[in-house]
Each structure stands twice: as C-alpha cells, then as structure tokens.
Amino acid sequence: MKNNPHIPASGHDTQHNYSSNSDQLDSLDLICFSHLRWDFVYQRPQHLISRCARHRRVIFWEEPVQVSPGKEQLVLSKRQDNLTIATPHVSNEWAPGEVDRVQREMLDCLMLEQNMQRHVSWYYTPMALKFSDHLRPQVAVYDCMDELSAFKGASPLLRIMEQKLFRYVDLVFTGGQSLYEAKRNHHPNVHASPSSIDAQHFGKARKGVHE
Q1: How far apart are the first and last CA of the chain?
Q2: Of the ranges 22-26, 168-172, 191-195, which is most confident?
Q3: Which helix (H) or strand (E) segment is 182 a member of?
Q4: 75 pLDDT higher than 70
Q5: What angle do CA 43, 52, 204 make, to 5 degrees?
Q6: What is the largest CA-CA distance in the chain?
Q7: Residue 211 and residue 113: Cα distance in Å, rounded?
Q8: Which of 83, 88, 136, 205 could be stapled to 53 by a disulfide with Cβ–Cβ 3.0 to 4.6 Å?
Q9: Which residues, 6+ apart, have CB-to-CB distance to 108 below 8 Å?
Q10: What is the DSSP letter of 89?
C-alpha cells in the first residue's frame, strides 16, 4: 500500500503552513474532530470550541451514527452564528473501511460547499485521521483530554492512530499534568493545558432556575 506523503513513516515532519502571526491565525476556519457529541456533556471541547466560534467559522465533526441502509447523509445543525455540528449518518451494514471512505467524501463535499480553503484541523480523537489525513490545514492541533486507549472497549488501533496523529500535528495540548508526562516525549511541541471551570457557563446558575 502506498504511504500517504502527509504521514511520515517516522519522526515529526508535518507539511502545514504554520505561522505564529496571530492575525493570520484569527482569520482561519476551524474543523474539530471529536469522539464526544456536542450535546452529551458541556465540557472541555464545548468550552474551547464555542469560544473559537466567536471569531471564526467552526465545524464540529461528531462520530458517525448508524442508520438503516438508504438513510445515509451528513446532518448539519447550527448551534450559534459560526458553529455548525456535523453528524455523519452511515449505514449499519457498512464495514469500517466503507464508513471511513464515505466520511472522507462527506467531509470533502462539506468543505467545498462551505468554501473552506484555509483552516485549522483540531483533533480530540486520533481515529478521525483515517478519513481526514488528506487535508492540508494551515495548522493541525491534537487536544489530548483523555487516555482514550485505556477506556473499556477501546479500539486496539487507537495507539497506532495516535502515533500517526503525533506525526501529523503541529501542536499538542494535554488535559492535565499526568497526560503531559505521558505524551511529552512523543512530539516536540507538547503543552500541559489543564481543564478548568467555564465561569461564564456555570455562572448562569447564580441567576436562579426558572421552573
């Protein structure tokens, strides 16, 4: 099988057009690939991505939902002015490889329809790299909020895909110090970024609850 030139066999060798110029970065769209659904629990991804959407267009790409054959589609849901949730609906009869292929097609079509030419790729799950490794983001980020491979029922491919993701991204954040210590030797640009309280979100409780 021919290697993807964007994922080197070893070492860190990304080909993204990274620039430290904040004005340039502020103008980029953002595509977030998440293993968590937007409406599940309001936590780290929602805290950060909702803030990103204040200043740029954001696509939050969820893991696929299985549906009956013939009902496959990409469901888009607007949550705030610049934030769109994208949920692939895929056939429950498809093999994993077919699911990845169709998600790649859905992603390409969405980017074309939205005219997303310059963007940031933001990953919460390494598994999303299977259908997005052909993208050419200006910057690619891995926000590692959990040790997913340690979860019950985790795919044995997670560790392999994470190593590929390390070689793909420009920047890695970790959701705590222990994760930082575990990941610091896998990438030259890893930063501990512990989760915290979203004061604006939880501050709403001070206003009382309407029955």
Answers
A1: 60
A2: 168-172
A3: helix 177-183
A4: yes
A5: 50
A6: 60
A7: 42
A8: 83
A9: none
A10: E
Residues 6+ positions from 105 with CB-CB distance below 8 Å = none
Q: Is beta strand 83-91 parallel, antiparallel or unpaired with respect to 73-80?
A: antiparallel
Q: How do residues 126-172 score in pLDDT, each as one tens digit?
A: 999 999 999 999 999 999 987 777 666 668 889 999 999 999 999 99
Task: Indicate the helix (H) or strand (E) that contains 143.
Answer: strand 139-144
Q: pTM higher than 0.85 for the full model? A: no
**What does the alpha-carbon distance between residue 84 and residue 100 come to, in Å, rounded to a whole number?**
21
Which residue bears the tokens 């110029």? 21
Q: Which amino acid is at 199?
A: A
Find out whether 174 and 193 touch, Cβ atoms under 8 Å. yes
